[in-house]
Here is the input.
Amino acid sequence: MKALYEQNQSDVNEAKSSGRGDLIPTIKFRHCSLLRNQRCTVAYLYDRLLRIRALRWEYGSVLPSALRFHMSAEEYNSECQDSAFLGPESHSGKMDWFNRYKKSLATYMRSLGGDEGLDITQDMKPPKSLYIEVRCLKDYGEFEVEDGTSVLLKKNSQHFLPRWKCEQLIRQGILEHVLS
Here is the structure.
């Protein structure tokens, strides 16, 4: 795009200085090409941001390492100095955008439902029961349930736990729902 712009700019300057009217159609064609390329780039980046936002709803606030691995270095390691919103026009900083979206969503959820807030990312489908049987796929360690008891989540162990407490762990691939 930069090369097209510079080529167009030099033709515009030449057309102005030497009065060459034969360059006008070429200038207009390049200008239309630049506008089309810009629209395509913005559409791609917007789609990418929508996909990154969907990852927050699907996997929670911590992205699995396999997904982080597939994000580019710019998306994952970028450090943005200001706190301004990174819109679709920014190529770098998608992970920063993800982190800001995650914080914004967390702030909103804390503002709902009184003192503890309300996690609107839970129960994406209405639950059939409040407790589910789960199998641990990885060693996780101690896991505290709302009544204060703790459960040791070791690989291949099965537990009967509250759905809302383990749904994030299911999304992260630590637990799997056992359908009997």
Notes: Confidence is low (pLDDT under 50) at residues 77-92.
